[in-house]
Amino acid sequence: MLARNLQAPRIQQRCVFVDVFREQARSYNKKYNIMSTAHSTASLRFAEHDRTHRLVTWRLMPLLLVCYLFAHLDRINIGFAKMQMSHDLQFSDTVYGFGAGLFFIAYALFGVPSNMALDRVGPRRWIACLMVVWGLLSTGMLWVESARGFYLLRFLLGVAEAGFFPGILVFLNRWYPARRRAQVTALFAIAVPMAGVLGGPISGAILENFHDVGSLRGWQWMFLIEGAPVVLLGLVVLKYLPDSFESVGWLSTEQKQQLRTQLSNEEQRKTITSFSGILRDPQVWLLVAVYFAVMLAVNTLAFWMPTLIHGAGIGRDSQVGLLSAVPYLAGCFFMLGCGRSSDRHRERRWHLCVPLLMAAAGIAVAGLAPGNALLVMSGLVVAGMGASAALPMFWQLPPAFLSNTTQAAGIAMISSFGSIAAFLAPYLIGWMRDATQSASLALYVLALFIALGGLLVLRTQAAIVNPH
C-alpha cells in the first residue's frame, strides 16, 4: 500500500511530461507545416514568374536582338570601310575620325527629344520609323564623294539612331523587374559583340570580293548590303512589336497581373520622380561619368580595331575581318556570364568595375607594341571582353534611381552625354595618328580615363543599385 502511494506521484509526473512533450511536438509540427507551406507557395510563385518572363523573352528578344545587331553593324562598318574609303576619297585619319565621331554629336543632341517622342508616339511606331530612316541613310553612304558629304550623312545617321538604344532600354524596363534585367539586358546587348563577330568577316569579304563589281567599289557594296535590310526590319517592327504587355494577347490575365505587381512594387522605391530631380541628383552625374568611360572603351574598339590589326602586319581585308571577330566572340561569352553572375549574386558594382578595368588594361596593352600582332590581339581580346560586359552591366544602374515617368528622359540624357565620349575616342586616335604616326599615346590616355570610370563605379550606393 505504501509502495503504491509512493509510485502515484511519479506516474503523474510522467503523464505531465508526456503531455508537455506531445504539445511541443504538435506545436513544432504546426510551425513546420506553416513554414513548409510558405516555402512551397513562394517556390510555386517564383516558378510562375519564371515561366512568364521566359515567355516574354522568347516573344520579344529575337526581333530586338536582330534589330540592334544591324544598328551596331551600321554604326561600326565605317571602321572596315576606312581601309578602302580613305584611300579612294583621300581622307586623312583626322577627317575619318571626325566624321566617324560626328555620328555621336548628333546622337548626344537628339537622344532626349527622341526618347520623349517615344513616350508620346509609342515604342512600336517610333522605333519602326527610326529604323526605316537610318536604313536609308546608311545605304546612302555609298554615294559619298567628299568630306562634306561624309560629315552630313554621319550626322544624320546619328540623329536617326539616337532614340533606338535608350528607347529599347526604357521599353525593356517596363517588362522586366530589376532582378531579371541584368541577364535580359546582356542578352539584348550581345548584339554589340555579335555585330563584330558577324560583321568583321562579312564586311571583310565584301570589301575584298565585291571590289569594282558593277562599277561600285567594295566599301560602296558594303554600305548597300548592310544598310538595305534595316528598312525591311523596320516594317517588321511596325507589324509585330507590342507597345506594352497590357496590349498583347499571348499573356494571360494572371501573367499580366504578375508583371503589374512586380513593377509597381519597384516603383515605390525609386528616388527620382521628375526631370528637375534628374539634373539635381549627384548620383545621376556620377553615372554620366561612368558611362563616359564605358563609351570610350566600346568605341575605341568599334572604330579603330580593324586599323590596329592592319597596322600590326595583317594585310588582307578578309584576314583583318576574321581577326576582328575574335575579341567580340570572347566578349559574347564573358558578357552573358557576367550578367548571369550579377543576377545570381544580386550585385552590380563590382560586375561593372572589373570589366571596365579589363577594358582599360587591354587597350593599354594594344598600344605597347603596335607592330606586334600577338600582343595587339591579346590586348584587344581582353579589351573586347571588358567593353562587351561593361555596356549591359552599366544599364542596370539608372533604373535603380529613375521612376517610370523619368526613365525615358533620364536614360536618354545619360546616353547623350556618353555619346560625347564616343565622338572623342575615334577623333582623338585619328588626330594623334596624324600628329605622331602612332596611336599608342592616344590609347594610353583613353585607357587611363576608362580605368578612372571603373573606379568611380564603386562610389555608387550599393544599397540602391543592387537589386532587392
Automatic annotation (TrEMBL):
Topology term for the membrane: Multi-pass membrane protein
Physiological role: Component of the tartrate utilization system and may allow entry of tartrate and tartrate dehydrogenase.
Record InterPro entries: MFS, MFS_dom, MFS_trans_sf
Keywords, ordered alphabetically: Aromatic hydrocarbons catabolism, Membrane, Transmembrane, Transmembrane helix, Transport
GO cellular component, one term: plasma membrane
Domain Major facilitator superfamily (MFS) profile stretches: 60-465
Chief location of this protein within or outside the cell: membrane
GO MF assignments: transmembrane transporter activity
Protein name: Putative tartrate transporter
Family matches, as Pfam families: MFS_1 (PF07690)
Localization, UniProt: Membrane
Transmembrane portions of the chain: 55-73, 95-114, 126-144, 150-172, 184-207, 219-241, 284-305, 320-338, 350-369, 375-395, 407-429, 441-458
